[in-house]
Automatic annotation (TrEMBL):
One of its GO terms (biological process) is amino acid transport. It comes from the Archaea. It is a multi-pass membrane protein. GO terms for molecular function: transmembrane transporter activity. It is found in: Cell membrane. Keywords: Amino-acid transport, Cell membrane, Membrane, Transmembrane, Transmembrane helix, Transport. This is Amino acid/amide ABC transporter membrane protein 1, HAAT family. It comes from Natronorubrum texcoconense. Belongs to the binding-protein-dependent transport system permease family. LivHM subfamily. The chain crosses the membrane at residues 6-29, 36-55, 61-86, 98-116, 136-159, 190-210, 222-249, 256-277. The keyword Amino-acid biosynthesis does not apply. CDD domains: TM_PBP1_LivH_like. GO terms for cellular component: plasma membrane.
Amino acid sequence: MDPSTALQYVAFAILLGGIYGLVALGLTMIFGVMDVINFAHGALMVVGMYIVWWGTNELGLSLFLTIPIAVIALFVLGVGIHLSTIAPIIDSSQENQLIVTFGVLLIIVSAIEIVFSADPQRLEFGLGSVQFAGVYLPLGQLYALIIAVLAVIIAWAFLQYTQLGRAIRGTADNRDAAQYVGINVPRIDYLTFGFGAALAGLAGAVIPLFQSIDPHLGDAYLINAFVIVVLGGLGSFPGALIGGMIIGFVHVFGQVFLPGSGYQIAIFLIFILVLLLKPSGLLGGDVHE
């Protein structure tokens, strides 16, 4: 492989890694605070995808207006899902929580299929690309990478420097102690689930920028997002971005050097090795890290 081709693949890997990291952010936030594994995360992403697609293609809204609309809509949807399905079983076994979030996934995906059909959809325009130092950079993926980095910085700053963020960190550290010192833990739970859903909506909102969408697309991203969360460390925002970058490189270079879907085997081998050798992940910890 010549240096220019290798550099192009590195660029693709970084761009894909940023998207993967963005997908994993909401997942790791919800787990870090609530200890809930949200199987509906991929379906929430799909809602964000279709809000951007419908608002841009059907309503003629600006692409960069539909993205914040998707984030706000997913926050509201996340709070509603938590209050109606998660809150009543928050103290139940994790198996019950998994079943409930899986049920939410099926309901959301089925509703999207009924409303929009199962046919793939695509934005009616392309964003094009730019070249930098001879490297081809698709603008859609470049915007997604920038949004991912900004999301990590903003989320970290929110948790570090706001009163609500400190309450979320305290709840993540010790739920019982947080309640004893006057933190309204149920309120923190539904806000956290809302923020996690909003991050899922943000991840989904940028995906139509560079590929076609369908109601089941979130499943493919969700599988790798679980690997990234474990790799980066459960509850770690920087870990989600770093883990996303690692999986992005494995994905891109695995497709080049391994036959068929060998890259996916490599991703799961990394997943297994991390579980065996460093179960806490690279930057394991709660959401304050």
